[in-house]
Write the structure tokens for this entry.
Amino acid sequence: MTDVSGILFVLVALLVGLATGKAWERYKLVEGRWIDRRRVRQSPYFILGLNYLVGGQVDLAIEALEKASTLDPGALELRLVLGNLYREKGQVGRAINEHQSLLQRPRLNRIEHANVLLCLGLDYRRGGFVDRAVAAFSDVLKLDPNNEAALVNLEKLQEDQHQWQEAYVTRRRLAQIAGPPDQPKSQSILAFLENELGLQAMKNEDWTEAARRFEAAIDLDSSVIPAYVHLGDVRVNQGDLSGAAAIWERSIDVSPDRAYLALQRLERVYSDLGTDSRFADLCRKLTAATPREWRARAALARHLSSQGQPSRAIELLFEALEHNPHALAIHQAIWNTLSQLDLPRHLVARYIQITREAVFYLDPHLCIRCRYRSTELLWQCPHCHEWNTFVEERITPATDTEAEILTGVAR
Ligand SMILES: [Zn+2]
């Protein structure tokens, strides 16, 4: 919904620009007769159209603005906006026709030409014509090298096609144009792109290059967790187990919320290093710091089960289940452990007691920008294409204090 209101805001801003920017250009010769351009802006249809746009009634806005546009068929901005509205309604072919016909007009100035091409590029992108969209945005940049909208769209198209290096260059340009206020956001995006480049190098088994990329990602933005996870994997491949353990431990310090991404890896590497006890210590530390953290409990339970201590494991799993009844992994671990214990009646009864009043639901990962849901944690949202916007939505037990709920929301 914020996307729609954002688009509407831009459209309204464009129309207001029409009303002020060209106020001096009152009269215009169209097909042999003088047209009073003020008539368009003074026509009730123009104002009506704006009102409908603000109210989000796109169909009525189109109807009114089309009527306003018949008063001055030459008004470029009005046709431009109408084309955009067709696209927003999903009539991509009609939008393309509208914008293409504007390109045919003689005497378009540089900025008008760039604006029309930008709208056409957006039509192509919406219609899935990737190559044509890339060409249109590139043409905009030839006319107007600092056009941020063209750069942002180009970057997203490059990311969609996994052209990470190209996307990186585009983001660098954007960062330069936007200047310092936008820097943290750009740094974070660049870090995620470095991480993707590192993954590409890993696929090619170029471990040195991969390590360099992941390190660069962490330097750009120390909160980009996948770079730590993958850098540890590279260190294991290079035979540097202590190095891997160190980088994974650092990732947990940076983001305890995402500790579980490193837990299984650490369990393996501690065992290979012959320092098994470090794993149990780490899980206990995590659980103590965040009482509702379930993955550390589940990981420790699995560890204890594998070491022949299922009775201690089942207690941890019951605790985890009370906090997170929706996590299927806990239920599976509980039944595994109960079977290992030969299904003692009193423990089965406790399980039923704990789950009796629980609420179950799917897709706990939620994009905080567009509310897209996913069963797994994603680093880039497939819907709004933003980086690092997923949080895990949890069912809040009725016993929680208000302060705890607020910290949950803030997070
Ligand atoms: Zn999203």
The longest strand covers residues 27-30. DSSP finds 21 helices and five strands in the chain. Strands lie at 27-30, 33-36, 365-367, 373-374, 390-392. The chain has a mean pLDDT of 86.
